[in-house]
């Protein structure tokens, strides 16, 4: 195209030249773009339309600083800025977080007499909001004589970025009209704030308002489903996308792979992976992580090999997936090789999460001394998670010596960490050190340290049900507790004995057993047994690590009731089937 422009002598035509400048700048070739601008008629250093194209192209290629510098060059060349100029460079300031230049532009705009111009005012509001200067954005917004959806959405998005979701919602509710962008901004705000149920509720309101969602809305919804383990709603979201012509591109596909993986449905995640034809490193990483956390270690490593054959370079997140895969598959030597290859082959410096994977790998294999030595070689300070991982390994393998050291280091970093006491108590109980178990319970009571309340989520027929240990607020509470009593009776008849080693209250054995009976995941399972068909997989999301007793009980439930149960706890997935768990009793 450029050759034909030169052939026909059109390179000095401002509109033709601006298209070429935009094309080159947008693809990151700023040198050619600037050379084309420099040959424009010298009178005034070219026309605003060509300069605007240069700035817009730099912005599209995410070279925000270059876009801003081009504006300064334009001013030095004596070219008069237009409203489009200001809108373009203000956007670059916002995206590049250059609030100082943005403020200078604001002053220049006032002096130029451009205002009031709704599009320029919106650009100013958006620039301040993007830069986190919400007082300035709010003052401008309040002073606008005319506002449109863009004005409102810019301020809402600004509050969302600062985590002020409640304030954003108040403003959203005041909007005279709303479009897809404003709804999506609010939904994504809830997702970013970790208020996933509110995000889904807002999406339902959006549907009632007859506003159609786009791919950005749906990715936010799918992300919320992933965090809640809401597979049914996630499946419905996929149907919605198909029905409304939202294509399975890389952006959408990556979100769906992550959602299915986090809902424990790795088969569906692989189906989506096979549908995504234009894969990037995030696509490969998502499926590798999904396979790894769902206990398919060998398959995850095979997928990593496929990634390399596809000439896609792994990043630090990819290696978290690969090391996790080695952990689940028990591939210690391979895990070491991958860890060393990060720096040796891929020039990726391991971070604390990679070291955590290595500690987990070595600990799972019983190589506790090597795990401790690895911690000593870390170039950064070990986190509480590192020591917690080692302590959990010591609990499994019954190593009191290293376990006590790990607990000591963990409590130095996080004195209120109740899980450290729980794991150490398990370790003492496994070693028949019941005096130390009682001492730990006394220490917890004296320090006022209480276990974080357990909470389990389960989705049934598109509705998220939440259960808290011992809670009776659910509308079906009586039926649930009655069902749970029957289930536990069946388990006891089959040889189940409650494991009370994690009960930290000084009560009788019978009362300790009652505390265990009412754990949130047991309530969720009882509810699912009441309301779901026997062919339906029960999927639960737990906010804490599963206790020993619940793990044992759910294994037996899958055997006696011939059900498949998937629990995603704080540490990993547990796929229970036929009385066994995919974690092989290590978590």
Automatic annotation (TrEMBL):
One GO MF term attached to the UniProt entry: RNA binding
DYW domain location: 495-587
Keyword Lipid metabolism carried by entry: no
Top-rank lineage group of the source organism: Eukaryota
Database matches in InterPro entries: DYW_dom, E2_motif, E_motif, PPR_At4g14850-like_plant, PPR_rpt, TPR-like_helical_dom_sf
Protein keywords: Repeat, Transit peptide
Pfam families: DYW_deaminase, E_motif, Eplus_motif, PPR, PPR_2
Placement of PPR repeats on the sequence: 82-116, 148-178, 179-213, 249-279, 280-314
GO biological process: RNA modification
PANTHER family per the UniProt record, alphabetical: DYW DOMAIN-CONTAINING PROTEIN (PTHR47926:SF492), PENTATRICOPEPTIDE REPEAT-CONTAINING PROTEIN (PTHR47926)
NCBIfam families: PPR
Protein name listed in UniProt: DYW domain-containing protein
Organism in which the protein naturally occurs: Aegilops tauschii subsp. strangulata
